[in-house]
Amino acid sequence: MLTRIEVAADRVRDRCVLRTGDLSPRRLPAPDGTVRVALVAAGALLLAGDDVRIEVVAQGRLRLDIVETAGTVAYAMRGGSARWDVDVTLTGGAELSWHGEPFVVAEGADVQRSTALTLDDGCRALIRESLVLGRYGEAGGRLRTRTRSTLGADELLAEDLDLSPGHRSGWAILGGARCLDSLTALGHRLPDAPQTLQLEGTGSIARRLVTEQHTSDLGDLWTDLQHSSTTSWSARRHESERDATCCAKVAE
Fold first, then answer.
1. Does residue 60 contact residue 92 with C-beta atoms inside 8 Å?
2. Is CB count within 10 Å lower at the N or C end of the chain?
3. Helices (H), the chain
4. What Å distances lie between residue 190 and 19, 95, 137, 198, 225, CA to CA?
5. pLDDT tens digits, residue range 147-201?
């Protein structure tokens, strides 16, 4: 079932419309100019036959923070399969911050996961995604991911990963690791680092291949980036409001 988060900037009060599907979005307190939404499972997830769809639309000069209250486990599906599809659209200078909790694919699960992100010029996104193959002591099931991102008229990122048993153990994929932890920046760049890929367009991906998700240092990087991005966002928001006020005065 479709879960939808739609927010729009407004000079009086930013608008937020939430629709519950397999996940229940709930608005949380946040500073002016920021809409903060928690995603809570509305039932048992992820089971054979589940078709989870999440749509996110942000319009105008605002910041949307999405947090997940708990990780997701894709359970053994006994020959069945499940889908998890995310579609994000950012326009008018909107910014998105989405901290995903671990997505665990248990042994016997079969999951297809897709993410599509469409950003207007001037928009930004920062997304953390942690894919874990198997619970403790398990080898993990089948997972295939597809990611597509555009910035303005340009394709920014196109990636397909087959993390199924027999494929993921290759040295160019996971090797001996069972967790793929990623930070993806779109519309801006992460600091240069040995394990950070700078995209041809304006964007970056930082990744860690680890045996246990909690050993990844991307959590620390996320915290640092959130602090700096919050400060810079406030400055950009105030500048935008000042420009709008000046334009209004000129029009008068």
1. yes
2. C
3. 218-251
4. 32, 15, 34, 8, 9
5. 999 999 999 999 999 999 888 888 888 888 999 999 999 999 999 999 999 999 9
What's the pLDDT tens digit per position in 114-149?
999 999 999 999 999 999 999 888 889 999 999 999
Please choose, from the candidates 84, 201, 100, 97, the residue with its C-alpha nearest in 3D space to the C-alpha of residue 145: 84
218-250: buried (b, 16+ CB within 10 Å) or exposed (e) per residue?
bbebbeebeeebeeebeebbeeeeeeeeeeeee
Residue with token string 């998105």: 96
Q: Which residue type does 243 have?
A: D
Q: Which of 38, 145, 52 is nearest to 100 (CA)?
A: 38
| CB-CB contact of 159 with 165 (8 Å) | no
Q: Using alpha carbons, select from 165, 172, 200, 196 the residue that is nearest to residue 183.
A: 196
How far is CA 170 from each of CA 100, 164, 174, 183, 231, rounded to the nearest angstrom?
A: 26, 11, 6, 22, 41
Rounded to two decimals, the pTM is 0.88
Cβ(110)–Cβ(78) under 8 Å?
A: no
> Is 127 in contact with 100 (CB distance < 8 Å)?
yes
Residue pair 151/182 in contact by the 8 Å Cβ criterion:
no
4-42 tens-digit pLDDT:
999 999 888 899 999 999 999 999 999 888 999 999 998
The type of residue at 129 is E
pLDDT of residue 106: 95
Amino acid symbol at 222? W
Paired tokens of 51: 């078709």
The CA distance from 138 to 140, in Å, is: 5
